[in-house]
Design a protein that fits this description.
Shape: globular
Structural class: alpha/beta
Mean pLDDT: 94
Helix content: 25-40%
Number of helices: 5
Length: about 130
């Protein structure tokens, strides 16, 4: 493995952050990202596009499982998504910028771009600019 690739295996990777739902730390939340940093883990997160083109950190295409609300992430405006609570926590659905600020370059971040496989590259381009 080259030196350029070692960052990927230098520490364990917390899938969707270091989450623990029974303790109110929900996957892909700012709390899960901060917990990963505190535990010396890298962070893997999922990124989706909002209706107005913002990169939001959320795994499922539908809101139901983690928020109890109905609808698709990509059908919601970013501002509305930021108001939606993640069930069992005080966290809201974060933007990619908010997660980057929360982990403050203290650990590697791997972003999984959630895609409809329709050729729309806006989300990948937005995430890459960060």
């Amino acid at each position: 493995m080259s030196a350029r690739q070692r960052w990927l295996t230098a520490r364990p990777i917390a899938h969707r952050g270091l989450h623990n739902a029974p303790r109110g730390v929900i996957e892909n939340s700012l709390s899960a990202g901060k917990a990963a940093v505190a535990g010396n883990f890298a962070v893997e997160c999922d990124v989706q596009i909002s209706a107005d083109g913002e990169a939001r950190v959320f795994h499922d295409f539908e809101l139901q499982r983690l928020t109890g609300q109905n609808g698709r992430v990509d059908a919601q405006m970013s501002g509305k998504l930021g108001e939606i609570a993640l069930q069992g926590s005080d966290d809201r659905i974060p933007t990619l910028d908010q997660l980057l600020s929360a982990i403050a370059a203290k650990t590697p971040l791997i972003c999984e771009i959630k895609s409809r496989f329709d050729g729309d590259m806006r989300l990948a381009e937005r995430a890459a600019r960060r």
